What we know:
Two copies of one chain form a homodimer. Chain A is of the alpha/beta class.
Amino acid sequence: MSFKITILGSGGALPTNKRGPSAQYIDCINRHLLIDCGEGTQTQLRKFGVQFQKISHIFISHLHGDHFFGLPGLLSTMNLLGRNTGLTIYGPENLHALLNDIFSCGGQQLNFNLNFVLLDFTEEKVLFEDKLICITSFPLKHRIPTCGFKIEEKTKEYSINAEATKKLSIPLKDYPKLKRGENIFLENGKQIDFRSCVIEPKNPRSYAYCSDTYPSDKYLNSIQGVDMLYHEATFTEELSDRAKKTLHSTAKKAAEIAQKANVKKLMLGHLSSRYENSEGHLLEATQIFKDTIVAEDGMVIELL
Amino acid sequence: MSFKITILGSGGALPTNKRGPSAQYIDCINRHLLIDCGEGTQTQLRKFGVQFQKISHIFISHLHGDHFFGLPGLLSTMNLLGRNTGLTIYGPENLHALLNDIFSCGGQQLNFNLNFVLLDFTEEKVLFEDKLICITSFPLKHRIPTCGFKIEEKTKEYSINAEATKKLSIPLKDYPKLKRGENIFLENGKQIDFRSCVIEPKNPRSYAYCSDTYPSDKYLNSIQGVDMLYHEATFTEELSDRAKKTLHSTAKKAAEIAQKANVKKLMLGHLSSRYENSEGHLLEATQIFKDTIVAEDGMVIELL
């Protein structure tokens, strides 16, 4: 049951031939998610071999163009390719009306339902939850209302230790109890400690996405201890004044956030087009937080 | 003084890795024009080396997404790169309000003037004219109001035949008259026929763009005799029913239009993504109109 992140766009506001605007496709235990949808996302999805009709939930962090200008085109293409299963879009208030206007002025009608869910920009909120995963939003600090997102695998059940259950002749009907961590009683009245029959589950995996934001303690709790933190690093420190003015982060500040939040790995993204390569970002960040990578378009990261 | 068309997107409604949605950049005697602006146009402009800040006039044929979803992103990028010279956009009625809504919901403001000019979908209209070129729009036949565009070089002035003017000792002050085709009088009273001192100008060049449309006689007059006709050919004849239903053209029908309008060359475009290559289109069209090519992304056509 994989948890994979495909980087569709790792660039900032100005797309380049190497870095498209923000978009990430996430396959979390067969839940197919898209976070942000900059211009050209549909082309990137095709290029990187994503079966995009499977996407069921789209999360738009905020309404700067480099985070949603690809949404009308993607929805249009899904429609033309015959989609009829609904799609849930989580986003800011005006997005729904805007999409309606865009399609209606072209006389186009989508043949599938769009379910819009408004983001809350004041506090952390659970957006989606099922038996295996949970997705939350949390406010970031940017020029316009902006949310980050966290995708968490729920605590997994124990696995059955087949050898042990065979030895103890435990009937199949008791397996669900063991998996949930409950002791059982055999027909002869003997109590069996579930620990003797199960294998410990792996730790549940988690991923957080913070783009765009000025670094701030206010979202530290929301991203605490995640396996992978994607954090924007539009600039490096020599442009920290510009970062402050535009409410963006530098690579150094992103690394400080990763350190404070005690995350396991950091991935930098949303790099300004002024940087020819990411060496400066990496150097700056790794001095503070060693386990750092820089997102590249087409990169696939699997959380293990 | 060149007249060049750069194909930025030659595909239909569904972009593929080979064919982007409709967009063409035209450099007509240093007038820098963009016709249609499908998603990803800004990336194509970069890819094909166009200095897009020079573009001064944008023409949007109609409001189906594959013809304008790239416009917000392009304007946004022009703005971020510091543009402060105005831009004129010719398009359907709702486009202006839509762009305003898109930018205002993201709190973005353009630092250059957008001058909007409404297209007339009932008859041919001159949209732009200066001393060297003239651009007209004319109604096409599609599911929503749609215009085609024609870009024409004006009749050129004569060039001075230096050898002849030297031989006849014609003073410089009389050159403008000769260029305009006026006879002159020398100081000794002798009349000089301008034809003896000038070189005939080349024929003025012309280009017409018809996408999207069902083939119709109603726009034949507007495209009569152009040097190059770009005509959509979404389908080939085996899908003529679908062409009729969706008000698109087949390659054969586009060729018939080219023949009837007595154009010099035909370029097919807006090919449906269902076709793996353009061989079928070319075969079908050339049986009727020999001088046919198929547009490809990145192709540059110079009118001589």
